[in-house]
Amino acid sequence: MNYLKKLSTGIKEIIFPIYFPDATRGVIRTLDSQDLNLVGVEGVVVNSFHLMSEPGPTVIKSLGGIKKFMNWNGLVASDSGGFQLLSLVYENKSFGKIDDNGVTFYRDSKGKKDRHVLTPEKSIQIQFNIGADIMICLDDCPSGKATNEENLISVRRTIEWAKRSKDEFLKQIANRKIIDKSLLFAVIHGADDKSLREKCAYDLVKIGFDGFCFGGWPLNNEKKLNQDILSFTASLMPDNLPKFALGVGNPKAIVDCVKIGYNIFDCVLPTRDARHKRLYVFDKNPDDMDVFSEENITDFVYITDEKYVRDPKPISAHCDCHTCKNYSRSYLLHLFEIEDSLAGRLATIHNLRTYTKLIEILRKNVQ
Description:
TIM Barrel; 2 domains; three-stranded antiparallel sheet; 14 helices; 15 strands
């Protein structure tokens, strides 16, 4: 496998593969920046739409950008807001409308009535005000139930919006006199239609970007990783540039996508599962694993199961996180039962360390 192992930029050297947990609103819920550093997180993903709604990009800019706002020294990638077309507008027409100019949201990020217009240009302006290291062009992310005609429109809009995004990106660099510029990624759409994926990729590569993303829903109708279309899309991306598998995934999905060439991953699963009492544990000592040949990478500990009431063991014997070194399964179950906020913090620390440990192993194994 000809795998891109690192990227030297004006920002910093990025080592691949890399996983970014979702700090959607500028926070990994229950954790601070010290917690993130201790578990080995190197970057986070924030969301332009949500930060546009609250506290607002001008507030973040006035405070020195998202990194100073969060007290975070790692990488920051900013989602353009395109996924909100799928999760909000396409799923609920009362939330907004989309046309060739951009997206009009009728509600804010908390669902309250408000009006926000998000164009490709405005999305880039917001991402500059946020101060992201990796910016993503606004894309038209259609529903998994979209018709062929709707997917055609999505590809056409995505390409046109990418052109407008890049023009605005270059304009912002010139106006702000930026030397160490951020990276701009474009998103490849086309659903399961390989000819549409090919057209979208061809036109985006011709425009020229610093990296490319898999766009759309990464699961098939059986809710399993759609390896065929993920692999095909990765093959359309230049091998000398980063390949971002947006929304992927669980540990096994990350391993499978590294096999087919993806370098960057983001997903809400480990942090959300932690808050819902579902903890990731390696099946065996991860340092002894051949992760590319393992059928199962991790299992789950459902920490509030009755069998853990008197269990003195850590969540995992193979984990070196703060939680596993200091607390028992019994104590964590107790914290969840009494609904203490420490439960979410300790569980999230553990799940994120499982992910960063997986990344460490993958870096040793990629050729």
